[in-house]
Amino acid sequence: MDYGNIVLADTKSGFIVNAIKWFTKSQFSHSFVTMPDILGVPMCIEAAASGVDMTRFDNSYQNNIGEGYQVWQLNLPQDVKDTALKQMLNDLEIGYGHFQYPWFIWRKVNLLFGRDIKKHNNWNTSGMICSQLCVAYLKACGVGYIFEEYGDGSISPQDLQDIFKVYPGLFTLIESCRL
Predict the structure, then answer these.
(1) Residues 6 or more apart from 117 whose CB is under 8 A from it?
(2) CB atoms within 10 A of CB 44
């Protein structure tokens, strides 16, 4: 598989992941970016419970029956994606943005009353959540204009999929597994 793609993941069990999916009205609980293989091992960069880290894509997702996922190819020249991926390495070891969750709960409550606040910024900017890492990557690729309808830190994995579908020339679904 090539790299520099966005992956939307559906973890099949767990209280936190199910809460994330419910509060964000999403089929997905996680998102991350594929990286170049290291010694033949498929890798990705993600913001998970321990913060921003590199992990094995094969063991954590491809070979894990508890994970479903979609791989979205970003249709830009590889040198543009490489430059953005190098910038992402600066985000390694940033802590996870656990305190950003209340904003998504507030967004869900507002949606129940017919008000979508996705254009508002998340109240908390400490740490980094998974979709925020993907947004940083896409902005570094020069396609930040696709987020004009969203505030800072307000994008969920489902929002990413919705955006990808609006820009079919920019994004192509190239793999879907166990969804």
Answers:
(1) 106, 107, 110, 154
(2) 21
Query: Can you say whether the dihedral through the CA atoms of 125, 127, 129, 134 is positive or negative?
Result: positive
SS3 content of the chain, % helix, strand, coil (to 5): 40, 25, 35
* Angle at 30 (CA atoms; ends 166, 82), nearest 5 degrees: 70
Number of H helices, E strands in the chain: 6, 6
pLDDT tens across 54-63, in order? 999 999 999 9
CB 136 within 8 Å of CB 91 = yes
Count how many residues are written for the chain.
Answer: 179
d(CA 17, CA 163): 21
pTM of this structure? 0.93
Which among 139, 145, 124, 116 has a CA at the least distance from the CA of 25?
116
